[in-house]
Design a protein that fits this description.
The complex is a heterodimer of chains A (316) and B (550).
Chain A lengths: L1 H28 L16 H10 L6 H13 L13 H36 L4 H15 L2 H15 L16 H35 L2 H8 L4 H30 L2 H6 L5 H10 L3 H29 L1 H5 L1
Helix pairs in contact in A: 1-12, 4-5, 4-7, 4-9, 4-12, 5-7, 6-7, 7-9, 8-9, 9-12, 11-12
Chain B lengths: L6 H15 L5 H13 L5 E6 L14 H10 L4 E3 L5 E3 L19 E5 L14 H10 L16 E8 L2 E6 L6 H6 L30 E7 L3 E6 L12 E6 L3 H10 L4 E7 L4 H4 L5 E16 L9 H9 L3 H8 L5 E2 L22 H10 L3 E2 L5 E3 L2 E2 L1 E5 L5 H16 L3 E4 L4 H4 L2 H4 L5 E6 L10 H4 L20 H11 L4 H18 L2 E14 L2 E2 L18 E2 L1
Parallel strand pairs in B: 1-9, 1-10, 16-17, 16-18
Antiparallel strand pairs in B: 2-3, 4-6, 5-6, 7-8, 8-9, 10-19, 11-18, 11-19, 12-19, 13-14, 14-15, 20-21
Helix pairs in contact in B: 8-10, 15-16
The chains are: A mainly alpha (316), B alpha+beta (550).
GO biological process, one term (chain A): transmembrane transport
Family (chain A): Belongs to the binding-protein-dependent transport system permease family.
Membrane topology (chain A): Multi-pass membrane protein
Amino acid sequence: MLRYLGSRLGQSLLLLIIVSFIGFAVLNLAPGGPLSQFALSPGMTQEQLDKIAAQMGLDRPLPVQYIEWFRHMIVGDWGASYRDGQPVLAVIGRHIFATLLLMGTATVISVTLGSTIGIFSALKRGSGFDYTMTVFAMIALSIPTFWFGLIAIYIFSLSLGWLPAGNMYTVGDGSALDYLRHLILPAMVLALVDVAIWSRYMRTSTLTVINQDFVRTARAKGLSRRRVLLRHIVGNSLVPMVTLAGLQLPTVLGGALVTETVFTWPGMGRLFLDSLGYSDYPVVMGLLMASAILVLVGNLAADLIVALIDPRIRLA
Amino acid sequence: MTDTTRTGHMNRRQALTLMGAAGLMGPAMIGRDRAFAANADPSGQIVLAFSQEPTVFNPLMPHIEVDEGVYYAVFDTLFDFDPEGALFPILATEVPTVANGGISEDGLSWRLKLKDGVTWHDGTPFTAEDVKFTLELTVDPDFRSFRSTGYSFMRNITVVSDTELTWEMSEPFAPMAAILASTYIIPKHAFDGVEDANTAPFNNAPIGTGPFRFKNRMAGDHIELEANGEYHMDGPFLKTLIIKYVPDLNVLYTQFKSGDIDVVGMQYITPDHLAEAETLPNKVVTVAGTATFESLGLNMMRPQFQDPAVRKALYAALDKTSIIDALYYGVPTPTETYMPQQSYYYNDQLPQHEFDLEKAAALLDEAGWMPGADGVREKDGVRLEFTNSTTAGNHLREQAQQFIQQTFGAIGVKMEIKNFPPAVMWGDYWMNSEFDTVVVGLNTLAGADPDTSSFFMSSMSPARGGAGQNTFAYQSERVDELLVAGASSFVPEERKAIYEELQEVIREDLPFLPMFQYAVIKGRKDDVSGPASNVNNRIDTWNVRDWTRG
């Protein structure tokens, strides 16, 4: 087990270096750059732009910039945002709460609801319920989230006036109830799509398990339906879901770009979009590294958990 | 189309006019201001929304337009432009002019008197040392300064007393007053003992003398400002000012409609929502001109644009009216020049554009540009074929390009559309004149000052080795002479004649084909008063000290 862990960690580190190199190269080789936003300012001169570039260290050769960045990155100094001069880790830290709140809520809803729907669809395969849920999943998966978002705002905020049209809280209020009211619409919109995904996976996984020998054996032993379902079917069909959950981790922490924009939610997705728009390289690199680390950690954690609960994997 | 809501501003102007008439000068005026402040009882809150996020809080560092929305609330300038283009004092007791002795006849010696009794938000008294520090920091080679134009002419900045300072200019430079009007004064004491001004704590926790104190910022969401009870002018009348960041313009409008936003700031309501916005209950929606003009800019170094007949023909083949009416819902105003129509220096006698494809074709025929085998005109081996670029994703501009492409095609001119994301478009591609033609919105003025040397002076083209913003690479001896004459004159009447002629020459030369002067659609709740348009300032919070609620 330890050797397995060790080799996985080694691979991960190598991957991180490759990701950072490619990310850095792509960002910096793309034309334009962080200074172009000032080019149209009245009174701006090329001389002044060059001076600002020199001050920010942007005039140095790219390999030098990369090595410098990498040297600082490995000791935990991820640089400072070009836009507001704040350390990258602090910038990310300030957006993480908003993302965790929204994505966490949406994930809890979608996993619980999606798994339940998936299991029942599989058990009652071909029933009216199964068909309805299949159609629902297809609709949810094929319609873009921003459209759902706008429709939800139109119905629940503009027409009915029940819920706020956006933002994470009312400035000056900020009570738990206020957060909750603001959370409902975006969390629902996000959960809608994820429910569809989870229900489809869970349905397939459950169907595979139902047809396995051990389920038939359990039934043949005369166990109650309920006991077979809970002990043998649900437990086993959740195993592949662990891997899926591991892959979902970076998405959950990376935020939902579109939903965050539609609901003016100050999370990581929007931070990424903003930082790209302003060519704020240090923040973009920070987010890139953070999500790469999350992908690796998520995968590793999922593999380890699966290995713990499924001895066949450990032996391989 | 002009804004009609300027109640708050007119009040103060009337008050100042009255004071002037009564002969109350200097200290008496401050006394009056402070009396107002003592009477002011700030109440209520306004949520003002921008579509970009303000992130740079040191006004001397490189920033974008939206950051100035915060500066006007937190900081003060020495004086500022009112909507008519006249300067009024803020931290200064009077605006220095040749008439009042603040500027010497030759424009080389300046003397500035400051208000007494003004304090910074942390209670420290404001003095002439702060002004000196601010002016010197702009040219400090170790400091990442936004701009040094104008400041670099200043010599021997001398603090005479706490409320007075003087300096010399290495050359007479009329736009200096306009540059000072956009120079927000920052506190010297916030930089005491700071090793690197680029990373001073002040840069994220600004201290100003302005009507509002910086309370806190929630990154990616909003900035909260609170009333400065010690403010030295009339106001503020709001307890809290929230500057909210809403990136999507549709969402911005939706939140204005649902009541989450009280005042829609930059980039305002989109033209496609105008008709509906005007019918919203309890909302005031106005259309106001801005100093930005849209044009089709030509790279004058390209051989096909060196023939004046080509430029004239292209202009005649530009269907301005259709672009304005069909794409922009008739919101912007057609223009023949770069100068805003609200400006004192605007030349209203320029020849009027006419969309006439026959005339355009005739012009090219006469000049010897004949259609080749594929219908594209050519002369001496040069084809009338070029690319046109603008920011990808700006759908109105992209549609305008298609209109232009069609009408140009009708006269045998081939235009290929080649767009880029903003960061690419306005990078080297624009600054080093790597484009053939562009569709661009430009504000070439510094406040109300008509000087545009940086954009039109021959020596200011980066592609020709200059350091300015003359990215059209335009060269005209007459324009150069006029720009030099205009920048060294301090008499508005004299300057008016100079800049009117300048506009004539440029309208004749057509280094860019002027399309329209931008107008924006502003919206606010009807219980908010104060927001007033000012074409001489970049952003609406220029008079936020006057804004009231209820």
